[in-house]
C-alpha cells in the first residue's frame, strides 16, 4: 500500500471514530499530504529517509508542536500553541515522519484512565464481553487508542509512573518506556522531572524499535539527556565478554519478583503471567525468583514524589506568567482581587488540584522529613533492590570492586504483569461509585512505578490467553505483560518483549 493511502486511511479513521483519542486530529487537507507524497516518491526510488518516512506519528498533547496547539488537556493551556517543536518532534520530522495529530490524555499526565481531560474521556476501542465501554488506561490513553484503532502508524506518549505501559496493556498495544535520560524531554511539558520520560506506542515491537532508534540521541538542550560518553560506556559494558553471551541467542535468566504475586491479581492476569513465563521457558530461557522487598512502598513513595515535583512545576501557571487568565465574578479576572485563585481554580481540573495540594503539603516545612525525605529514601532502596536482582553493577552506578556476581540473583530481565486486572468499565470510573476514588486509580500503577522510580527501561506487550475451547475467541483474554531491564539495557528489554508480544498462550 502506498504511504499516501495508508495516511489517508488513518486520517479517515481519526474522523470516523468517536473514541476521543485526539484533541487535535489531522485536518483532511494540509501540508502533511505533500510530505507523505514526497515520502512515497523517495520510497519508489528506494531512498526512504528512515523506516518511518511518510508515516503518521501521533503526538501526546503535552509535547510541544509548532503547527498544532499543545493543551495538556487542561483549561489553563487552552489557547496555547508553542512557538517551537520539542526535540522529539524535530527528530521525527527529520526522519521523514509526519505529525499525525495531538492525542488526548489525563490533564498534564496525571491519571491512570484518561478520564481527567478537559476534552472528555478517551474511549477504548475494545469492549468487554457485555459490550460495555472500557477504560483506555492513562495518561497516554489517546496515543494508545489511536494506535489500536489504526488512526496513526505509531504514537508518542509520556511515562512518569506507567502512563505509556498501562494504556498499552488496556488497549492491546505495545508501550515502551526507555531508560531515564535516553530520549530528550526538551519541549515536553514537565510533570515530575525526576521521573518523566517520553515513551513510544506501536502495534508491534518493530514499529516501537524504529522510533526508538531515531529518538535515542543526546540532546544538549536537555540537561538530563545522557551524554555521548555515558552512552558509549553503557554500550561497551553491555558488549563486554561477561555479558555478551546473552546477545547471541544463549538462554536468558528471567527474574520473577516474589513480591509481585499480590492477592489483588485477578486469576486471568495471574494465568497470563504464568503462561508467559512458561512460553519463555519453552524457548530455552530459565526462570529465577528474585526479591524486590522495597517494592511494597513504591506506590506510596511515587505518590509523594510525583505530586511534590508537580506542585512546583505547575506553580508558574498563574495567569500572569503562564496560562489562560481565569475570570473573576465581573469577567475581568481582576476585580475581586483573586487573580491567581480564579485562574488556577478554573484552569486546573480536580485531579491536578488534588496533586498540587498533596505536593504542596509534603514539601511544607512540617511534613518534609516525614514524607518527601522518606519517599526519597524508599526510592533509593527500590533502586538498590533492582541492582541486586540484576547483580551486575552498571558503569554509571558505583562499581562492584571485586566483580562478584551473586548466583542467586543475576537475572537479565524481570517479567511481571503490567496491571493487576483487565481494564475496568468506563462507566464505573465516571459514575461516582467507590471506583472513582483517586486511591483506586493510584493502585493501578503498582507494577509500573518501581521501574519509573529506578529509571529503568520497561515495555508492556500484549499476550492473549486462549479460552481453551478453541472456538469462542471472544472469550480470549488480552493481558499486558511487562519486561523490565537494567539501566541502559533497552535493546534487551525490547528483544524479550518481542518474544512475548502477540503470543497466543494456553492453546495446548
Ligand atoms: N503519568 C503517569 O505516568 C501516570 C500516573 N498514573 C500518574 O498519575 O502519575
Question: Any chance you could write out the topology, listing elements then pairs?
Answer:
Blueprint: H1 3-16, E1 22-24, H2 31-44, E2 56-60, H3 87-94, E3 98-103, H4 141-148, E4 154-159, H5 165-171, E5 174-177, E6 197-202, H6 205-215, H7 228-238, H8 241-244, E7 253-257, H9 267-282, E8 286-290, H10 298-313, H11 339-347, H12 350-362, H13 369-390, E9 413-417, H14 426-430, H15 438-443, H16 449-454, E10 458-465, E11 477-485, H17 490-500, E12 504-505
Parallel strand pairs: 2-3, 2-4, 7-8, 7-9, 10-12
Antiparallel strand pairs: 1-3, 4-6, 5-6, 5-10, 9-11, 10-11
Helix pairs in contact: 4-5, 10-12, 10-13
The protein binds asparagine.
Asparagine binds next to loops.
Subcellular location: Mitochondrion
InterPro entries: Amidase, Amidase_CS, Amidase_dom, AS_sf, GatA
Pfam family, one: Amidase
Amino acid at each position: 500500500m502506498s504511504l499516501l493511502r495508508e495516511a489517508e486511511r488513518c486520517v479517515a479513521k481519526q474522523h470516523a471514530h468517536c473514541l476521543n483519542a485526539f484533541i487535535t486530529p489531522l485536518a483532511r487537507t494540509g501540508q502533511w499530504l505533500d510530505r507523505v507524497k514526497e515520502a512515497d516518491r523517495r520510497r519508489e526510488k528506494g531512498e526512504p529517509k528512515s523506516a518511518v518516512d511518510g508515516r503518521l506519528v501521533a503526538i501526546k498533547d503535552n509535547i510541544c508542536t509548532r503547527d498544532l496547539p499543545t493543551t495538556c488537556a487542561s483549561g489553563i493551556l487552552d489557547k496555547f500553541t508553542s512557538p517551537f517543536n520539542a526535540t522529539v518532534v524535530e527528530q521525527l520530522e527529520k526522519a521523514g515522519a509526519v505529525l499525525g495529530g495531538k492525542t488526548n490524555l489525563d490533564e498534564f499526565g496525571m491519571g491512570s484512565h484518561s478520564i481527567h481531560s478537559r476534552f472528555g474521556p478517551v474511549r477504548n476501542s475494545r469492549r468487554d464481553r457485555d459490550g460495555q465501554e472500557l477504560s483506555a488506561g492513562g495518561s497516554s490513553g489517546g496515543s494508545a487508542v489511536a494506535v489500536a484503532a489504526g488512526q496513526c502508524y505509531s504514537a508518542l506518549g509520556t511515562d512518569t509512573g506507567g502512563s505509556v505501559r498501562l494504556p498499552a496493556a488496556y488497549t492491546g498495544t505495545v508501550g515502551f518506556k526507555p531508560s531515564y535520560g535516553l530520549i530528550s524531554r526538551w519541549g515536553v511539558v514537565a510533570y515530575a522531572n525526576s521521573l518523566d520520560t517520553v515513551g513510544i506506542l506501536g502495534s508491534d515491537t518493530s514499529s516501537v524499535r524504529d522510533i526508538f532508534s531515531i529518538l535515542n540521541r543526546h540532546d544538549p538542550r536537555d540537561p538530563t539527556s545522557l551524554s555521548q560518553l555515558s552512552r558509549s560506556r553503557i554500550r561497551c559494558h553491555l558488549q563486554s565478554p561477561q555479558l555478551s553471551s546473552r546477545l547471541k541467542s544463549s538462554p536468558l535468566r528471567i527474574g520473577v519478583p516474589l513480591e509481585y504475586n499480590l492477592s489483588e491479581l485477578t486469576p486471568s492476569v495471574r494465568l497470563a503471567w504464568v503462561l508467559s513465563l512458561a512460553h519463555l521457558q519453552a524457548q530455552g530461557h530459565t526462570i529465577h525468583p528474585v526479591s524486590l522487598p522495597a517494592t511494597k512502598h513504591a506506590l506510596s513513595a511515587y505518590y509523594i514524589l510525583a505530586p511534590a515535583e508537580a506542585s512546583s512545576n505547575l506553580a508558574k501557571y498563574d495567569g500572569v506568567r503562564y496560562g489562560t487568565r481565569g475570570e473573576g465574578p465581573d469577567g475581568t479576572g481582576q476585580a475581586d482581587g483573586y487573580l491567581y485563585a480564579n485562574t488556577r481554580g478554573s484552569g486546573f481540573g480536580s485531579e491536578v488540584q488534588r496533586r498540587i495540594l498533596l505536593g504542596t503539603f509534603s514539601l511544607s516545612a512540617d511534613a518534609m522529613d516525614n514524607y518527601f525525605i522518606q519517599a526519597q529514601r524508599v526510592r533509593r532502596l527500590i533502586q538498590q533492590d533492582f541492582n541486586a536482582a540484576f547483580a551486575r553493577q552498571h558503569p554509571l552506578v558505583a562499581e562492584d570492586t571485586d566483580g562478584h556476581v551473586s548466583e542467586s540473583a543475576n537475572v537479565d530481565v524481570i517479567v511481571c504483569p503490567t496491571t493487576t486486572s483487565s481494564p475496568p468499565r468506563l462507566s464505573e470510573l465516571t459514575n461516582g461509585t467507590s471506583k472513582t476514588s483517586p486511591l483506586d486509580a493510584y493502585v493501578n500503577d503498582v507494577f509500573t512505578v518501581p521501574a519509573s522510580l529506578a529509571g529503568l527501561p520497561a515495555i508492556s506487550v500484549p499476550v492473549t490467553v486462549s479460552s481453551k475451547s478453541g472456538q469462542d475467541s471472544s472469550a480470549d483474554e488480552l493481558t499486558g505483560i511487562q519486561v523490565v531491564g537494567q539501566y541502559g539495557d533497552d535493546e534487551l528489554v525490547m528483544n524479550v518483549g518481542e518474544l512475548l508480544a502477540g503470543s497466543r498462550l494456553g492453546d495446548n
